[in-house]
Structure to design on (351 residues):
């Protein structure tokens, strides 16, 4: 059975006036009605990925986080390599801190991620394991983490980036050591550990119509046919203004996933401006258009239940370190001023 949606459409908040910024501390020059109130009225979650360093050290970061968003994704704190430095030894300190914060501020936690080919502990990647041992390791990991947060982490990216751009299954320790059935196993174990959690398959470059999204579609269809508990597809949506997405294709893909009976969540959105054309102002406008159009598609779809950005303000983005150049891909600038992309989301959520 499908878990109930965390954000029911038409679940209006009784009063928006109670959500103004608290009088203590500095005023943040964002919309008088924050994103999260508008998103909740429209029946979707709005979230961001959270970086530990900023979370621990920057009070303004925490303030904007709680004020604007009602979904929180730990950016790295729940990854296998962060949780388990030694075999059978886990440290949940960072994840616990984030989840406590989320609960205090009535935010939903999006768990990222249980099974990935990257960010694995060294004890795992350096070891030699039989198939049975690898199955036991993965099962114990999923059971330990999902059970610990049962009822507190509402959504899990169970399997992340298991498909290549050409549609084949990605080479990984899991595929090599267990075989393609590791995917179905992971969903079963996660569901057993928390039957209420919404379980996602999450990937990038899979929102338009291409070989990868076709493979994701076929994977979900097959899993559903086999009775595997998969409830949603996550589209990361790391985009750039240089190659704006094809919105007709995104709509068509959303529709076919909807027809399979799964939800879609935008799980890691950012829009790079580095290699785009025009002045800085023009680039920010082009960026805002992409955010607006993706949010519009999400709001129009029956199946889109959350919209999450990969980082809060530009100086938190993973992109400069990963792609090797500066960028400004998020909704807030490095002084936490809202950018045109923020205003675009406010605008479209208001309509
Ligand atoms: C990235 C983080 O943002 C970085 O801080 C970390 O060093 C590497 O991972 N797709 C994913 C995320 O699913 O987990 C990645 O996060 C970004 C791409």
């Amino acid at each position: 059975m499908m878990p109930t949606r965390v954000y029911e459409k038409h679940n209006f908040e009784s009063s928006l006036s109670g959500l103004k910024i608290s009088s203590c501390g500095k005023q943040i020059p964002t919309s008088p009605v924050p994103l999260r109130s508008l998103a909740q009225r429209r029946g979707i979650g709005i979230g961001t990925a959270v970086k530990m360093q900023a979370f621990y050290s920057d009070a303004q970061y925490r303030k904007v986080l709680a004020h604007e968003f009602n979904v929180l994704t730990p950016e790295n704190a729940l990854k296998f390599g962060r949780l388990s430095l030694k075999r059978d030894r886990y440290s949940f300190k960072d994840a616990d801190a984030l989840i406590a914060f989320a609960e205090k501020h009535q935010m939903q936690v999006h768990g990222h991620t249980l099974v990935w080919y990257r960010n694995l502990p060294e004890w795992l990647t350096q070891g030699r394991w039989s198939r049975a041992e690898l199955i036991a390791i993965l099962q114990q990991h999923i059971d330990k983490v999902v059970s610990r947060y049962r009822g507190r982490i509402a959504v899990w990216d169970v399997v992340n980036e298991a498909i290549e751009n050409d549609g084949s299954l990605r080479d990984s320790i899991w595929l090599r050591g267990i075989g393609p059935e590791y995917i179905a196993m992971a969903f079963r174990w996660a569901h057993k550990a928390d039957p209420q959690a919404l379980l996602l398959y999450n990937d990038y470059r899979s929102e338009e119509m291409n070989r990868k999204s076709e493979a994701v579609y076929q994977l979900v269809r097959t899993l559903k046919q086999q009775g595997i508990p998969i409830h949603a597809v996550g589209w990361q949506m790391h985009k750039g203004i240089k190659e704006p997405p094809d919105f007709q294709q995104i709509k068509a893909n959303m529709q076919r996933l909807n027809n399979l009976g799964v939800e879609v969540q935008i799980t890691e959105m950012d829009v790079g401006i580095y290699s785009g054309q025009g002045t800085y102002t023009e680039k920010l406008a082009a960026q805002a258009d992409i955010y607006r159009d993706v949010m519009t598609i999400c709001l129009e779809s029956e199946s889109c239940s959350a919209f999450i950005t990969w980082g809060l303000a530009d100086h938190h983005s993973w992109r400069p370190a990963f792609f090797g150049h500066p960028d400004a891909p998020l909704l807030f600038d490095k002084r936490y001023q809202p950018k045109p992309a923020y205003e675009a989301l406010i605008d479209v959520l208001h309509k």
User: Anything to note?
Assistant: Residues 280-300 form the longest helix (21 residues). The first strand starts at residue 45 and ends at 50. The chain has one domain: 13-350. Strands lie at 45-50, 71-74, 108-115, 153-160, 198-203, 232-235, 238-240, 263-272, 304-309.
